[in-house]
Amino acid sequence: MDFSDVVGFVDIPGSNLVPYVAELINCTGGINGSPVEVRVAEVGDDAALAAQELLDWGAQFLIGPPFADFALPILQTTGGNVPLFVAASTEPTLADASINSYLVTFDDFAMAGAAAQWALDQGITRAIVFTEGEGIPYTGVNPDAFAAAFVAGGGEVVSTQTYVWAADTDFSAQVNEIAGISENNEVVFSAALAFQVTALRGQLEGQGLDGLTYIGTDAMDATGIQVEANNEGIAHTPHTSISAGDPIDTLLAGYEASRGEALASRGFMALYVDSLFLGIQGMLDCDCTEPADIGEAVKQISGFQGLSGEITYAGTNGIPPKAVPINQIVNGEDVLVATIGG
Questions:
Q1: What letter does residue 36 receive in the DSSP assignment?
Q2: From the CB of residue 121, how many other CB atoms can be counted at a distance below 10 Å?
Q3: What are residue 216's phi and psi, to 5 degrees?
Q4: Greatest CA separation found in the chain?
Q5: SS3 for 49-105, per residue?
Q6: How many helices (H) and strands (E) does the chain have?
Q7: I need a surface site. Which of 14, 72, 124, 183 has the fewest CB within 10 A?
Q8: Could you report the average pLDDT of every consecutive run of 10 residues in the chain (342 residues)?
Q9: Domains along the sequence of the chain with CATH
């Protein structure tokens, strides 16, 4: 797991939840009488070393961090022989079933494409896109994919603006340019963090552009769009849409009661649990314990009912064709307003 400022907001709570779920499994007798053992290693500055330590310990499958800078060294260490579930990742380049590397959720193309489809379904035909640059993983790929899907659906991208992800909050230059071309009816899309989107919205509204629609990626869910000021009407693509009393909510409430603290990034937590479940399912399907054999079984998983939705790897390259939820802040509540794809 990556505990850095970049990824720690999902990997830290995820690494706390997985051992807790293993404890629950073991309280009911384990898997066919065998206990589930979990060890957490922080990648630090050497993801390859962290992975090797886990393999030396006897890990039969791994749950890894979401970005390539650490996931790729882990895959080099495993030699493609040990299943790796990059739990919170949407990077399509990290999915490769031939080397046992699996996404647990939809990728950037599905996520951004669903956002574009939702905007078109609202009757919006003009888009303003914020990007860090063409082809840049996540912060460029998502805007690229949104623009392609939006145009393919009959829309027009009327403005493309650049910014620095996780840093910029002064958008005055971009806002001035947008004010010159906007008809106050566009959709604004980015992979920006929640506080950046609300800052941008405030500055656009300061120019009288109060009729814009905002939709973003899973980054908004992870960074608290639900509690940001001036968030009414903003839409995003979470990995799970959690409602009171549902299985995910019940699990997270149980963790809080047991550990005395609530987990952050709630919408991502089912992905970490499903990573654990998928590895175990592979072992059950093959009745085996060798990592390479487990990986072969994981490749054939179809219709697995996970906490985060239905997961299929059979016939894919390691990206499950999952539906994308669209949530929107409505009357102060973060609610599911559409489900696209899958």
A1: P
A2: 12
A3: -140, -170
A4: 67
A5: HHHHHHHHHCCCCEEECCCHHHHHHHHHHHCCCCCEEECCCCCHHHCEHHHCEEECC
A6: 11, 12
A7: 183
A8: 92 98 98 96 96 98 96 97 97 97 98 98 98 97 98 98 97 98 98 98 98 97 95 98 96 98 96 98 97 98 97 98 97 97 86
A9: 8-106+244-311 (3.40.50.2300), 108-238+325-340 (3.40.50.2300)
